[in-house]
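DM between two lab members

TW: hey, do you still have the Alkyl hydroperoxide reductase AhpD entry open?
JB: yeah, one sec
JB: this one, 172 aa:
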Amino acid sequence: MSIDSLKAQMPDFAKDVKLNLSNMSGEEGLTEQQKYGLMVACAIASRNTTVREAFIAEAADKLSAEALTAAKGAATLMGMNNIYYRFVHLASNKDYSSMPAKLRMNFIARPGVDKVDFELWSLAVSAMNGCGMCIDSHEGILRQAGLTTEQVQTAIRFAAIIQSAAIALEAA
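TW: and the structure you got?
JB:
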């Protein structure tokens, strides 16, 4: 399984998704680790087995074992954090924002990769999960670390493409 095999499974109505998938590997604004880590984290967050398997296979020889684990960790932790912090942000009762989360997040402190890469993956997954509070937090850290708006936008574009691939497969 790979991006090419995923593209071959795209239904006719998803031609744009197929074209967008074709452009991802050639993206030049991000490092290889950032690119392929994004693919893995977003594919896991899409919750589609076919998409997940395709992107993990695509990244297998491009990511170290540590980077692959970190991308999986970003998807997993954001799955938890995005629900919690989206609730805190959206709840009318603002008491929740002053309460400790009491969620274990030790992996964030030492993900095994450069913090910027982990934050980029976390941002993309947070966008997929619709958590504005997490989006603002991760985007702020990335901008302070020197990433450009174009690099941040690329991460979100990857998330959008991967999610649309999952939806296309479900709709077929």
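TW: got it. The chain has one domain: 3-171. The first helix runs from residue 3 to 8.
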